[in-house]
Amino acid sequence: MAHIIKTCLGLVIPILFACSLVVARDIADGGNDQPGKCNQKPDQPQDNSNPIQPNITNSDQPDNPNPNQPQDNPNAIKPSIANLDQPDVPQADQPHDNPNPIQPNITTPDQPDNPNPDQPQVNPNITIPDQPDNPNPDKPQDNPNPIQPNISNPDQPDNPNPGQPQDNPNPVQPDIPNPDQPPDNPNPDQPNNPNPDQPQDNPNPDQPGDNQKPGIDQPTDPNAAVADGGSDYTAPPLETGFLGEWVIDNPNAGVAAMQLQLMPNDKLVWYDTTSLGPSGIKMQPEGNCPINPDAKNQPDCYAHAIAYDWRTSAVRTLTLQGDAWCSSGNLWPNGNLAATGGTATGDKAIRMIPNNDDPKADFETRLNVLADVRWYASNVVLPDGSAVVLGGRGSFSYEIVPPSLDFKPRRFDMPFLKETTTPDLGPGRPVENNLYPFQFLLPDGNIFLYANNRAICFEPQTGNVVREYPELAGGSRNYPPSGQSALLPLKLTADNKVINTEVVICGGNSPDAYKVVDARHVTEKQFMPALRDCHRIQPLNQDATWTDEEQMPSGRVMGDLLDLPNADLLMLNGAQSGTSGWEDATDANLTPLLYSPTKPMGNRFKPLNPTTIARMYHSCSALLPDTRILVAGSNMHQFYTFDTQFPTELRVEKFSPPYLDPALDPNRPIIDAKGSDLVLQYGKPFKIAATLQSNETMVLGEIMVTMVYPPFTTHGFSQNQRLLIPALTSIENNVINAVAPGGGTVAPPGYYMLFVNRLGVPGPSVWVHIE
Ligand SMILES: *[C@@H]1O[C@H](CO)[C@@H](O)[C@H](O)[C@H]1NC(C)=O
Ligand SMILES: *[C@@H]1O[C@H](CO)[C@@H](O)[C@H](O)[C@H]1NC(C)=O
Ligand SMILES: *[C@@H]1O[C@H](CO)[C@@H](O)[C@H](O)[C@H]1NC(C)=O
Ligand SMILES: *[C@@H]1O[C@H](CO)[C@@H](O)[C@H](O)[C@H]1NC(C)=O
Ligand SMILES: *[C@@H]1O[C@H](CO)[C@@H](O)[C@H](O)[C@H]1NC(C)=O
Asked: 245-660 falls under which CATH superfamily?
């Protein structure tokens, strides 16, 4: 290991350390377009109000005269080892990772006609594994109407077009309605509350500050160090002994979820790819068998992408073009999904599916339009709605892609991605350890980028690296030893400051873990135990450094780390040993972890009820608008493979986190969409009307509003995930007055799920839009 680190450091290009010149402040100027602490160049505008320059051509980058050929990039740094772009595939139409491709048992060119073309046709040769393992045998496993009965909202009319904001009877008020109300933090220059368990400011003087509710557990150690950015509750969040519940939502969705996005139209779009042969579902309608360039240009009757209605569990097949294997994606400000990159025919593709309710809506595809190959890349949305599409195998660069199908990308070198690549072991034997890098848009407009064991901060509009952080020792955190990472909830003050910007990274594996397990390197697999350690960093602090977070109760690779509506997080899926890659992990980690980052050390991780279904490589999950978690996918194999230890998984589950304990229902706020502002304007007040199921009146100090940007999740990283906690100024007659995030660096434009919580108990969300 020491040798590898030395080798990596030998490649390091000197990077300026000017951040120390920036005066330390503990509150970033989120959304105020001010330079923040990460930025060493205060004269550079942070938030270019109109940076889309779609037709900028990179003069070094001529138009590709032959769009079917990969375009040589004269600016690209050549990988030190040849054939990085050539995925060790002896035959060009074989997908990447497999030196010994398993022939699937499910090649079925001659399928009987589907007698009922309106019904999705399931591949008859795919035998869905028995489902005897329902931990709750009294619960129906296959629930066609899985909406929780106790979360119904009689006041919430059906929105015929959920992607569109509903009519707003309460237009945004131009001024902050209650100027006498102090902001949450009365002294924003003094953000570091030495004793954050104590409310800094009781906004509800009628409630005693030491407000003790019967039956509410007090934190064990009120003086323990607790991170900022938690709630302003004047009483501790309600506790429950309920450890969550799993139900099967669909016994066979037909396509394994390798990449997954919840869209604002309340459909989840997920897909694997075009090069892996038959899936579990045929294209609709029957007989729709498009020519598949990734299958020897033969007709392919199987679907590789679906839209999944989380309310009804209905599946609609979509047309996927261009091999999307190990690709990335992001939403546009209008809610459309852009699926970027992949490999082979799709390595420079962009595919867009609109955010609407058209029952025929499908991907529209442009091949060969990205500047570089984006295979194992990650995306982050910028304040102007364009996206940084960064990295990928052998692509030591990023590009800015506007929310449009017709564009010329702006490409920037990113040598850090080469520096952090663990060297290959020979042609076709990559190690890397830095793919699917973690990146987060910081409130100062810069991007925090973590790859392998190092982190930097860079200016997206220039590519300038403005800061490098200390190395994170102990392992490799990106693909293939895929760890988990998230931006912790961003709590805002009424004058649009962000209290405490912080990133957490958990798990992963040794830098050697892939070399000792993958079939390209060894014949005898050795599954190294996944890491249990977690670390946090406040990247905008002057002397930002990694601090040790509590250890997880179990090691994890390939897990998802999702924001929950109450500002806790949930870690789930993945394995306890091995790495990403085909057949490269074992020992499924079936136990989700509730992660409460603001609780005292020692109380932050809580194991929840386990599932019975292994969700290994190529599995995904997503927070749903009704506060449950949808879990789908898992395919450790090149093709759909069922008679093996970790079979391709087509069952869809939903998990109810502890806050869905029915005993908490009286506290559950139900939003009245008609009485709420669903179109927000940066920095402006907005109103949310809600009622508690108990009919008690909501009071300031017990209510927290959260806004969750729905992430694009693949390979254990939820790209663009962020949770915002807007400041509340008052609550009058069950109408919450809140202040919208101040700008696009804090809240990139688009749709957010807005939740109201009472003392940690969330109710179902409404979609709000901000741009
Ligand atoms: C940019 O390119 C697009 C697509 O080629 C074209 O439709 C558009 O008119 C161009 N815009 C400008 C400002 O040149
Ligand atoms: C294919 O199916 C046959 C018959 O079910 C089984 O014996 C064999 O093990 C399977 N092979 C693979 C590779 O799955
Ligand atoms: C499907 O199964 C049938 C019966 O075993 C077999 O004849 C056919 O080749 C199979 N096609 C698939 C599935 O692999
Ligand atoms: C719904 O609430 C009722 C009344 O509080 C309770 O009896 C019932 O068990 C709850 N049902 C569920 C599914 O939580
Ligand atoms: C709350 O008020 C509604 C409407 O008046 C009523 O139907 C319901 O029973 C009340 N719930 C409780 C718990 O009092």
From this structure: Galactose oxidase/kelch, beta-propeller (2.130.10.80)
